């Protein structure tokens, strides 16, 4: 074990972090100074002695990753980024929590240089880090060779009581222990304080026993306030453990050095001005100066940054040598690091005609995955214990498992997430954030709601994650209302930067995958049926890729049906019945609202045109369809148990009933008189 060597500037550096935390939060008059002040010694030891990264190239692939799971303590992360020389100035620290600043209220990936994942909602970062650890283990197993240890970084996490209370952390920690991820080191800020006060009011479990039961190594630092040697030794011991993730229980005093130290008063409120001045005097800093950083502190962190830059230079030389010996692997690895998909992969997408057999869109999804997986080593899939229902595991897949289990290997690309939907979603975000991997995850659409917190951060963070969400409506039948996702589509369609696809047939399913894979800054949810769907006349991958298109065209229409997914074939039947009565009905398929909304206005108005009423039909809640239709037909309440055909009949989702409804709509608008303007025509 390497020995701790104290440095003359250690105390000054730690005091700098503590006083800056007070100033940053104080100037904003908003934030959480306590945890940054308590965690300052651990942060200093980690970043000055262990953490390998190059601030001048924050995307160096083999950098260590740092996740601030307790994102409310973000002042700490911003301070460290500034001291290390990332693109964050003192003025940026002064603009903490201000509009359009680089220092928002919680860390946001893609917004602030050096932030790996977006945290704030507690527990999310904890689980993201497990994804980062899986990604490192997988990429190392695939590309490292003897003498070429190209991918060997650690992921370090600061976490707190709030994160450990959240269920998503338990899901992720359990899986991380099973997967033997020795590249994960979590430092638990055990300060016994939450917003409500002492954690003894709600959180009294034995954390050590809990994590030991998960298969983790648990270490202790009893004095996290001043014992730098103990902190150092714990990190060294954690790095030496290769088959278990490590939790270091670090006993700290929240708000250390302030008048309110050790109380919840310093958790989520700025220190008072006199307290900040007293704090600075205690640590030998000028009490009348704000945002004071001694040159000694800058020098220490400049040395850490220089170490990272030198390591990257060595790594680049190793990568160049690797290219000479393993040119094929090098080409693939560098392509994946660059975030580019292989040329021509989309040629593998299945194409269908109406003569092809009807199949459930979940089965069509499996056919797509089987076709494209050989061309896309970037794909890393999994399911929350529903593999046989989601059809997410292709026959050639190898499970991602430790070799010692005999169940697979780290080279494997299929993850058995177990019944952990929320953890799965947050882990997938980490897989995407690591780079070089496009994760897809499977569950029933209804249970994507369990993971809504992770999906939301995926959209906010622009993670390239694909959800294979099967059993997507009352069409799942006998499982009944508990499993039938009536409201789920409305929720995710309302979420910014997420593509919610509900394909109606094989070509639309291929189109959904085409766009989901091409749109690498937008997560996608593929809402897929349990029941068989016919392949439709006039559907093509190209047309469906526009998000919406005219499936059945007539001139001088009396009505336009607009629908998605499993109901499109039903409204086609309704249109045929209306035609027999002399009523002309167009049919529009709208598999993805967000993609359709991005098309030129001229195209959108040609699809959902003025001149006749538009009636939407979907076996879900109608909320949101008002944007695209004059009238809406769907479910006003919960579904029902029974064979899906009977359930559809119960709710009037049949060709005969929809023809009758369509006839009423057409007659109503004719009687009403006046021009019928497309609902897409807006004042702004």
TrEMBL record:
<dbReference type="GO" id="GO:0005829">
    <property type="term" value="C:cytosol"/>
</dbReference>
<comment type="function">
    <text>Catalyzes the transfer of a two-carbon ketol group from a ketose donor to an aldose acceptor, via a covalent intermediate with the cofactor thiamine pyrophosphate.</text>
</comment>
<protein>
    <recommendedName>
        <fullName>Transketolase</fullName>
        <ecNumber>2.2.1.1</ecNumber>
    </recommendedName>
</protein>
<feature type="binding site">
    <location>
        <position position="161"/>
    </location>
    <ligand>
        <name>Mg(2+)</name>
    </ligand>
</feature>
<dbReference type="InterPro" id="IPR009014">
    <property type="entry name" value="Transketo_C/PFOR_II"/>
</dbReference>
<dbReference type="InterPro" id="IPR005475">
    <property type="entry name" value="Transketolase-like_Pyr-bd"/>
</dbReference>
<dbReference type="GO" id="GO:0004802">
    <property type="term" value="F:transketolase activity"/>
</dbReference>
<dbReference type="InterPro" id="IPR049557">
    <property type="entry name" value="Transketolase_CS"/>
</dbReference>
<dbReference type="InterPro" id="IPR005474">
    <property type="entry name" value="Transketolase_N"/>
</dbReference>
<feature type="domain" description="Transketolase-like pyrimidine-binding">
    <location>
        <begin position="359"/>
        <end position="535"/>
    </location>
</feature>
<feature type="binding site">
    <location>
        <position position="447"/>
    </location>
    <ligand>
        <name>thiamine diphosphate</name>
    </ligand>
</feature>
<feature type="binding site">
    <location>
        <position position="191"/>
    </location>
    <ligand>
        <name>thiamine diphosphate</name>
    </ligand>
</feature>
<keyword id="KW-0786">Thiamine pyrophosphate</keyword>
<dbReference type="InterPro" id="IPR020826">
    <property type="entry name" value="Transketolase_BS"/>
</dbReference>
<dbReference type="Pfam" id="PF22613">
    <property type="entry name" value="Transketolase_C_1"/>
</dbReference>
<dbReference type="GO" id="GO:0046872">
    <property type="term" value="F:metal ion binding"/>
</dbReference>
<dbReference type="Pfam" id="PF00456">
    <property type="entry name" value="Transketolase_N"/>
</dbReference>
<dbReference type="Pfam" id="PF02779">
    <property type="entry name" value="Transket_pyr"/>
</dbReference>
<dbReference type="InterPro" id="IPR055152">
    <property type="entry name" value="Transketolase-like_C_2"/>
</dbReference>
<keyword id="KW-0460">Magnesium</keyword>
<dbReference type="GO" id="GO:0005634">
    <property type="term" value="C:nucleus"/>
</dbReference>
<feature type="binding site">
    <location>
        <position position="193"/>
    </location>
    <ligand>
        <name>Mg(2+)</name>
    </ligand>
</feature>
<feature type="binding site">
    <location>
        <position position="389"/>
    </location>
    <ligand>
        <name>substrate</name>
    </ligand>
</feature>
<feature type="binding site">
    <location>
        <position position="32"/>
    </location>
    <ligand>
        <name>substrate</name>
    </ligand>
</feature>
<feature type="binding site">
    <location>
        <position position="267"/>
    </location>
    <ligand>
        <name>thiamine diphosphate</name>
    </ligand>
</feature>
<comment type="subunit">
    <text>Homodimer.</text>
</comment>
<feature type="binding site">
    <location>
        <position position="483"/>
    </location>
    <ligand>
        <name>substrate</name>
    </ligand>
</feature>
<comment type="similarity">
    <text>Belongs to the transketolase family.</text>
</comment>
<feature type="binding site">
    <location>
        <begin position="120"/>
        <end position="122"/>
    </location>
    <ligand>
        <name>thiamine diphosphate</name>
    </ligand>
</feature>
<dbReference type="GO" id="GO:0006098">
    <property type="term" value="P:pentose-phosphate shunt"/>
</dbReference>
<feature type="active site" description="Proton donor">
    <location>
        <position position="421"/>
    </location>
</feature>
<feature type="binding site">
    <location>
        <position position="479"/>
    </location>
    <ligand>
        <name>substrate</name>
    </ligand>
</feature>
<feature type="binding site">
    <location>
        <position position="362"/>
    </location>
    <ligand>
        <name>substrate</name>
    </ligand>
</feature>
<feature type="site" description="Important for catalytic activity">
    <location>
        <position position="267"/>
    </location>
</feature>
<keyword id="KW-0479">Metal-binding</keyword>
<feature type="binding site">
    <location>
        <position position="72"/>
    </location>
    <ligand>
        <name>thiamine diphosphate</name>
    </ligand>
</feature>
<feature type="binding site">
    <location>
        <position position="191"/>
    </location>
    <ligand>
        <name>Mg(2+)</name>
    </ligand>
</feature>
<dbReference type="InterPro" id="IPR029061">
    <property type="entry name" value="THDP-binding"/>
</dbReference>
<dbReference type="InterPro" id="IPR005478">
    <property type="entry name" value="Transketolase_bac-like"/>
</dbReference>
<feature type="binding site">
    <location>
        <position position="267"/>
    </location>
    <ligand>
        <name>substrate</name>
    </ligand>
</feature>
<keyword id="KW-0808">Transferase</keyword>
<feature type="binding site">
    <location>
        <position position="162"/>
    </location>
    <ligand>
        <name>thiamine diphosphate</name>
    </ligand>
</feature>
């Amino acid at each position: 074990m390497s020995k701790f060597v104290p440095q003359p500037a250690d105390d000054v550096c730690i005091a700098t972090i503590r006083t800056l935390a007070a100033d940053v939060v104080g100037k904003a008059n908003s934030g959480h100074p306590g945890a940054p002040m308590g965690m300052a010694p651990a942060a200093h030891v980690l970043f000055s002695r262990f953490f390998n990264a190059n601030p001048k190239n924050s995307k160096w692939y083999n950098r260590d990753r740092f996740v601030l799971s307790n994102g409310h303590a973000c002042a700490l992360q911003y301070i460290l980024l500034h001291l290390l020389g990332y693109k964050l100035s003192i003025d940026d620290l002064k603009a903490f929590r201000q509009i359009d600043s680089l220092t928002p209220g919680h860390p946001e990936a893609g917004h602030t240089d050096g932030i790996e994942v977006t945290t704030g909602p507690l527990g999310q970062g904890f689980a993201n880090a497990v994804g980062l650890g899986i990604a490192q283990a997988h990429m190392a197993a695939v590309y490292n060779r003897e003498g070429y240890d190209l991918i060997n970084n650690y992921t370090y996490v600061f976490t707190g009581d709030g994160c450990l209370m959240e269920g998503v952390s338990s899901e992720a920690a359990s899986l991380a222990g099973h997967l033997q991820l020795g590249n994960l080191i979590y430092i638990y800020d055990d300060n016994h304080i939450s917003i409500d006060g002492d954690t003894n009011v709600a959180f009294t479990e034995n954390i050590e026993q809990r994590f030991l039961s998960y298969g983790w190594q648990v270490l202790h630092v009893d004095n996290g306030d001043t014992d730098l040697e103990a902190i150092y030794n714990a990190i060294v011991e954690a790095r030496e453990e290769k088959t278990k993730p490590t939790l270091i229980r670090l006993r700290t005093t929240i708000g250390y050095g302030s008048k309110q130290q050790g109380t919840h008063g310093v958790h989520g409120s700025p220190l008072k001005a006199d307290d900040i001045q007293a704090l600075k005097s205690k640590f030998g800093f000028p009490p009348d100066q704000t945002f004071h950083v001694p040159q000694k502190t800058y020098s220490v962190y400049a040395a850490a940054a220089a170490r990272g830059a030198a390591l990257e230079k060595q790594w680049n030389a190793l990568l160049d040598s690797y290219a000479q010996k393993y040119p094929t692997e090098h080409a693939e690895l560098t392509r994946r690091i660059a975030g580019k998909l292989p040329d021509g992969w989309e040629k593998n997408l299945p194409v269908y005609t109406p003569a092809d057999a009807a199949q459930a869109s979940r089965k069509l999804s499996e056919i797509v995955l089987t076709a494209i997986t050989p061309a896309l080593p970037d794909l890393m899939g999994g399911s929350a214990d529903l593999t046989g229902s989601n059809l997410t595991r292709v026959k050639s897949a190898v499970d991602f498992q430790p070799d010692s289990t005999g169940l697979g290997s780290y080279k494997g690309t299929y993850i058995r997430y177990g019944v952990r939907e929320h953890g799965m979603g947050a882990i997938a975000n980490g897989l995407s954030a690591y780079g070089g991997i496009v994760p897809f995850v499977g569950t029933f659409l209804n249970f994507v709601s369990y993971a809504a917190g992770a999906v939301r951060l995926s959209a906010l963070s622009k993670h390239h994650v694909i959800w294979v969400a099967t059993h997507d409506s009352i069409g799942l039948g006998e499982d009944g209302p508990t499993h039938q996702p009536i409201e789920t589509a409305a929720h995710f369609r309302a979420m910014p930067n997420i593509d919610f696809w509900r394909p109606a047939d094989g070509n639309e399913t291929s189109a959904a995958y085409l766009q989901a894979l091409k749109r690498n800054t937008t997560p996608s949810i593929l809402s897929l049926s349990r029941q068989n769907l016919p392949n439709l006349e006039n559907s093509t991958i190209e047309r469906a890729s526009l998000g919406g298109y005219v499936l059945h065209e007539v001139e001088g229409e009396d009505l336009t049906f607009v629908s998605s997914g499993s109901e499109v074939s039903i409204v086609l039947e309704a249109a045929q019945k209306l035609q027999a009565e002399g009523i002309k009905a167009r049919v529009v398929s709208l598999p993805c609202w967000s993609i359709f909304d991005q098309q030129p206005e001229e195209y959108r108005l040609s699809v959902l045109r003025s001149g006749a009423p538009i009636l939407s039909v979907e076996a879900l809640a109608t909320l949101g369809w008002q944007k695209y239709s004059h009238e809406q037909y769907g479910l006003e309440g919960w579904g029902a148990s029974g064979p899906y055909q009977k359930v559809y009949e119960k709710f009037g989702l049949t060709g005969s009933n929809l023809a009758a409804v369509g006839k009423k709509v057409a007659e109503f608008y004719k009687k009403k008189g006046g021009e019928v303007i497309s609902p897409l025509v807006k004042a702004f």
